[in-house]
Amino acid sequence: MKEYKPGDIRNFAIVGHASSGKTMLSEAMLEAAGVINRMGSIAAGSTVSDYHDNEQHRQISVSASLMHLEWLGKKFNILDCPGYADFISEGLGALRVGDFALIAIHANHGVGVGTDAVWKYATEDGIPKMIVLNAFDKEETDFEKTLAQIREHFGERVFPMTIPVNPGPGFNQVLDVPRNEIITYATDKSGKFTAAKATGEWAERVEDLHKQLIELIAESDDALMEKFFDKGGLSEEEWRAGIHTAIQKQVFTPLFVTSAENNIGVARLMDIIAKYGSSPVDRAKVKGVDGDGNPIEVSLDDPDPVLYIFKTMSEAQFGELSFFRIYAGAVKFGSELYNTDRRSTEKIGQIYLLNGKTRTSVPSLSAGDIGAVVKLKDTHTGNTLCSPRRLVSLPKVDYPKPNIHASLRSAVKGEEDKIASGLAALHHEDPTFLYMVDSELRQTIVSAQGELHLEVIAERLRKRYNVHVDLIEPRVRYRETIKTKGDSKYPPQKTDRRCRTIRRSLDAHRTQAAGYGPGVPSVPCGPKCGSRLRAVSGKGRHEGLRGRYPRRLPGGRCEGRFLRRQDASGGFQRYRLSDCRILCLQRIFHGGAANAARADPHGGNPHSGRLHGQSDGGSFQPAREDPGDGHGWRLPTHQGARAGKGTLPLLEHPPLTHWWPRRTRRRIQPLRRNAPRS
Ligand SMILES: Nc1nc2c(ncn2[C@@H]2O[C@H](COP(=O)(O)OP(=O)(O)OP(=O)(O)O)[C@@H](O)[C@H]2O)c(=O)[nH]1
Ligand SMILES: [Mg+2]
What we know:
Elements: E1 9-16, H1 22-32, H2 53-58, E2 65-71, E3 74-80, H3 88-97, E4 100-106, H4 113-125, E5 129-134, H5 143-154, E6 158-160, E7 162-164, E8 173-176, E9 181-185, E10 193-197, H6 200-219, H7 222-231, H8 236-248, E11 253-257, H9 266-276, E12 285-290, E13 295-299, E14 306-315, E15 319-328, E16 330-332, E17 336-339, E18 344-347, E19 351-355, E20 358-362, E21 364-366, E22 370-374, E23 384-386, E24 392-393, E25 404-410, H10 416-429, E26 434-438, E27 443-448, H11 451-465, E28 469-472, E29 479-480, E30 510-511, E31 523-524, E32 534-537, E33 543-546, E34 551-552, E35 558-559, E36 561-566, E37 572-577, E38 581-582, H12 593-597, E39 632-634, E40 645-647, E41 650-651
Parallel strand pairs: 1-3, 1-4, 4-5, 5-11, 6-11, 29-37
Antiparallel strand pairs: 2-3, 7-8, 8-9, 9-10, 12-13, 12-24, 14-15, 14-23, 15-22, 16-21, 17-18, 17-23, 19-20, 19-22, 25-27, 25-28, 26-27, 30-31, 32-33, 34-35, 36-37, 38-41, 39-40
């Protein structure tokens, strides 16, 4: 394999709004360079870049693809990125390792939301941008109007390097400003072209534009500017020498017109990229931190290797494929590198150059290049691999937070483990996808960038891990709070022996979902409300409530109790009780014949269902702490147990406090056997 010096490598990401022709542009480049014999098409799902099933049947790009070719002695590493915002993580990773961004804009549609976004990301990454205005073979394109719109968005310094001569169906000629020529492309999609001097009206136009171009180039450098003023222009040699710097400094943003579908205008674009495009040498030093967290610089000519993993992908037959860019040193098959993020050593396996799914194995790659390696043990997107002699960690890409959530439902029992490992692998592959098991909702919540993203994730999970999952709407995590004070009644009722729960009615207390979900009306608690709460005696501390899901939150706030209330559909819902203050539950009860019979006059073990100091079922002890607010509540009485009186100071909106969470030994069972469990 040919070795390329860093100066001969062109790493770039093709980014832009959805369906602007990025994939076709990369296909046209591969065809022009002779990597493929015939251009594939999106409709037939035969492009090199979009080779995954989910890309072919949706006819959109879903993941970034790496391709390479040689043009004018330079190696192009092309990263074709998806345009849909749902898959933005792919574009962000590619922009991070690219030396410039090729931003595709559809000639009919102009600048889209996606165009603005990638422009912003490329600017944040500090890489130059080039614009490709694509699809001039379409009807009703208006070059001047679209150029004006682009300039409105990205500034007046967007400069057309080529102009469509015969836009519309049959488009095959462009005016080439640097060369003052009209380029005529072959209509066989080979990308071949012939050049002729511009004549007539086109000659005047190109001359004018050529002057403007030279002026822009002169602005990039003081010495050139002086020459420009001295001589009234620049020689071809001078302006050609300055064009690279001008693009690097973004004195102007070059714009090219193409029809990627027909491979028109692409070859000259590749010429400009090969001659004047950014190479790794233009960003020879990158910042990172060493093993102690001190800032350091990694230089292209450092001998110790530093690799940044910008993408990982699990492939059938191959296992995990990690895409990397080398920022220093060289990487060789069989070498050992240290993963500073995972603090583990990785042995480098087969190294590949990729063209979509076609892999070419190479023994090594040197600084500046991009490749992929298989089967790293514990290396994920965003990790840095380096020599154990010099530890380096490169800054990670700042991925956007997910903005859509769904609940993942397993359709087949027993697949939970497979689903869990699949979700973990997918998260490591795509950091913009997150998941969690919500113990409150008892649902697995998956979060992603958009609906399409969620669908693709679920599809990957099904296909790759062979599991049966559906996406459903997640439940809403409401909060209950107690809004008013009131007396409570304790209707005599049978108490489930297993629960030993005091059925305590909170129907006098109105509850309201607090702050979660819009417009949830106040719901009075039904008679069963609070049936999971019970009074216990703490050992010499407080008496408090015990429940099934106690959770103490930081800052002294305690949440985690559930009120049970019947919703409109008749089912029972339980939401955490929050924003209320429960000082202490003072009375101690047993709520049933069974408990009463087992009452322990000496009290002690709260887990037994008998409470400290309790002498018989249904009786009570006076409060240790009585807030004295006069709001007593009646004890449940049955089977001869005495009625008692306690105080349940459930106050309004309080800053809150403790309640002493203790785990019940057994899970409290639902009281109504037939009641659906939420
Ligand atoms: N007429 C015409 N159609 C084009 C051209 N380039 C792309 N298309 C069509 O536009 C559609 C989208 O093209 P893609 O190359 O997939 O666009 P993309 O930007 O890669 O799309 P995403 O990656 O999904 O964002 C396909 O149907 C292409 O055939 C072009 O130059 N002329
Ligand atoms: Mg695409």
